[in-house]
Amino acid sequence: MKFHLSFAFIFIAIYSSGQFAKIDDKDGYVNLRKKPDVKSEIIKKFTEQDIFWCLWPEGDWYQVDFKGGSGYIHKSRIKFVSSFQMIPKIKTQPDDLTFQKDSIKVEIKIKPFRESENRIEFRARGDQKDVMKINGGETWGNFGMIPHTEYQSVYYSFGKYAQSLPKEAIFNLYNPDLNRTDVYFDGVSNTMYITASNSDGAGAYVLVWVIKDGKYKKRESAVPF
């Protein structure tokens, strides 16, 4: 219990200083550098389509994560997803959360994870067994244990579009936390972002779904530390 409580406090502190972001540059791309220095080696380029997890600042630079590593971007080239218009919550229940403003509506439902309905692969670790894969996929949010809950559906209406996220968008994401879920809308690019900070302790992860012009584009997930 002490481990879970300590981890929860650490996670809240870290999450409060990190968030998802995109680039903000008239050229349409930004250089990701190895060190927080304009003369440092360029290790990657981010474009306007990229969404990344932005960690704590180091002076005028932010450390950011991407698949395969991390680097630094100057703060003047970063736009936080949380800076866009927040869509308010209109219904909050333990397993059902709804956001709505004007023509934008998002409804997220979760359900109990049923071990008997899923194919689980274990790895022996001493006298214990760790969950390695569920239904053939790597898992998020369960830290080697059987998950408690999972996403049932994420429905959205956006102008003339109304549909649910495809199954692959919610696949292998476990122990959702609806209390740490938000929706933001960028009116300039007509893009909606659904963000979440999930897990009930160890195994924490952050998540964003991107919906542009009413169509689902992608998801990004990261370990927030």
Note down, in words, how this protein is organized.
The relative contact order is 0.16. The protein has a five-stranded antiparallel β-sheet. The longest helix has 16 residues, at 2-17. The protein has two domains: 2-82, Roll (SH3 type barrels), CATH 2.30.30.40; 84-222. The chain has helices at 2-17, 167-170; strands at 19-23, 29-33, 42-47, 52-58, 61-66, 69-74, 78-80, 85-86, 89-93, 96-101, 104-112, 120-125, 128-134, 137-138, 149-158, 161-164, 181-186, 191-198, 205-212, 215-222. The protein contains two helices and 20 strands. By secondary structure, it is mainly β. A hairpin with a 2-residue loop joins strand 13 (128-134) and strand 14 (137-138).
Which key phrases capture this entry?
single chain, 225 residues, mainly beta, SH3 type barrels, 2 domains, five-stranded antiparallel β-sheet, 2 helices
